[in-house]
Specification:
With 150 residues, the chain is of the alpha+beta class. 24% of the residues lie in helices and 45% in strands. It has helices at 15-22, 28-31, 123-146, and strands spanning 2-11, 35-42, 54-61, 64-76, 80-87, 92-101, 104-114. It has a 7-stranded antiparallel beta sheet. Strand 3 and strand 4 (64-76) form a beta hairpin.
Length: 150
């Protein structure tokens, strides 16, 4: 089973403010479900964070520790951050998008990937859990930035 789930939320702040926080790997553990640590383990092609940069994340999912590396495939601040896994238990493609909205920013997260290895039997549960988690991620992002969320 291939996983392809998405969530979106309007956050009452300008895209630049939302993206500045959400696209900074140093905040990953603060608003992303299950992430315990995140570390920039390779700088981008032009130095710092950008295309080619790699972030190593440690998470807990379905009771298991997961270590994986995401490489930045596309970076267009403040609109888009697109990352693909280059190491980990399953292939993954994570996209954050931030677009202007009359009420602030339309923030979107999309996660695509396979459920390989040990996670293959749990694919249906995994898809539901990922969908739930990214919805919570956006709620927590809004809480971090505004101090409240519905």
């Amino acid at each position: 089973m291939t996983i392809d789930v998405a969530a979106e939320r309007v956050i009452p702040l300008p895209p630049e403010q939302v993206a500045e926080y959400a696209m900074d790997w140093r905040h990953d553990a603060d608003w992303t479900q299950g992430i315990r640590t995140a570390e920039l383990t390779r700088e981008g092609d032009a130095g710092g964070f950008g295309v080619g940069a790699e972030v190593t994340r440690t998470a807990h999912f379905l009771g298991r520790r997961i270590d994986y590396v995401l490489r930045v495939a596309s970076y267009d601040f403040p609109r888009l951050l697109d990352m693909v896994s280059v190491a980990g238990p399953m292939p993954m493609h994570v996209t954050y998008a931030f677009d202007p909205h009359p009420d602030g920013t339309l923030a979107r997260i999309r996660v695509r990937g396979g459920s390989g290895g040990l996670f293959r039997p749990a694919a249906p549960l995994m898809a539901r859990q990922v969908r739930s988690n990214i919805g919570k991620d956006l709620r927590d992002l809004e809480r971090r930035l505004t101090g409240h969320a519905e």
